[in-house]
Amino acid sequence: MRALLFCTTNLFSTLLIISSSHSQVSSSLNFEDMLRLSARWELGKVLYELDEFATAADQISQVTSAFPDDPKAQALLGTSYTMLGEWEKAESVLQMALSNNPKNPEMINLLGDFYFQKGDYQTSFTFFEKSLEFNPKQNEVRFHLMEDYLRASRFTEVEQHANYLLIEGNYKNPDFFALLADFHGSHGYFAEALNFALLALKADPGNNKYLRKLGEAYFKVNQFSEAVTCLQSYFNQSDPDIQSYLLLGEAYFNLHQFEEAEKIWSQGLSEFPGDPNLTRSLAEYFINTAQPLRARETIQDLISFRGLSGSGRLVLVTYFRKMGNYNHALDLLKSEQLKQSSQEIQNATLYEEAQLRYAKGDYWSAERLSNRLIKLNYEVSDMYLLNAKIEMVKGNHKAAQNFVLAAQQANPYNLHVYALASAAFVNKGDLSELTLLLDSGLSHMPNSPKLANQYAAVLIRAEKQLIP
Hints:
Blueprint: H1 11-21, H2 31-49, H3 53-66, H4 71-84, H5 87-100, H6 105-118, H7 121-134, H8 139-151, H9 155-167, H10 174-186, H11 190-203, H12 208-220, H13 224-237, H14 242-254, H15 258-271, H16 276-288, H17 292-306, H18 310-322, H19 326-333, H20 336-339, H21 343-359, H22 363-375, H23 380-394, H24 397-410, H25 415-425, H26 432-444, H27 449-466
Helix pairs in contact: 1-2, 2-3, 3-4, 4-5, 4-6, 5-6, 6-7, 7-8, 8-9, 10-11, 10-12, 11-12, 12-13, 13-14, 14-15, 15-16, 16-17, 16-18, 17-18, 18-19, 18-21, 19-21, 21-22, 22-23, 23-24, 23-25, 24-25, 25-26, 26-27
């Protein structure tokens, strides 16, 4: 529940407000009655702050009985009922408060918050938007509304309010910048995400959570050295979570510091034994470094700790796929347990099956699964690349090239795009499009030695074609 938006008052100012602002005060209320009501008001506010909402409502209802038009008392009573889930009482009291102050943004916001707590998000949005019409400079209200729109996947409204806060509001809340970093990162705009992560840390340089977010943003744009610096600093000052172990290990791996990667993932598993994601990373590392027995031991540790759960079964699928045992992997994918798992695991299951179908030469099924994942917005760049490889096998090089371009558009930081591009475009003989694609990649990743070497090789090949 958001903090109440009205100001609280002390005992004597409350007396002054009550006695001076209500002509309808009953003549039967003497000074002692007023004093008792003021004490109830103060006690009600304290109880509310202590989350004693039922007793707070009991005290404040005494005040509203004597002063039925007092907006502050109505607001506090209505929000107490909201916190208790007494929706009818809360709505009645808050609507009465608004009718007494129809143009007061604070009262409108309280009703917006009430409907949000009730789960009526559309009505909630309507009230908050109405409040901003009366006072557009409510930056905190706008930011919270932006958060609510993001949860509801209403991205157009998110962008509208974000632009206002950035341009008109001059809003410097680090949580706002961090939210924009997440928003842009989730939509594949990793350079923009990095800029907002930098702004979040600049706004609150002592907050380690923004240091971690900056490390993640550097990782997404393949600036692995910077990612390691941020994440290692975060590790030194905080208790890292699972995702931090995964990112730091992967960053070390991409820098070819394999022993450090193994060390970090192993530390993560000692802190979070049985975690399937850390297990998968460490097992894949052992497979990629020709240590299949250690990979199997790592997975066995997971199974002994957690049993063959949906996530554990998926780790086994990845293991068998990497080891080339495609039939066994496909058998594991038939598990009802996987079908009944979370949406994330179900999507990962489809991803594994698409890769397996391709490896077995079942291109029709692989393409069907990859297109399904693209619609689900899951690993979109990799799925376009899978479609590109399928088209290359079929000999449809133009279609393959289009899928490579789509993969780059989905994630220009995916190095696999540029590795496959050389094979997809070289058949044309004209290297101009490939050169443009690699040039675009270098504009996003100017410090990538792998991409720079590939670009140089293409330029040399193109130059040779010009020699008569």
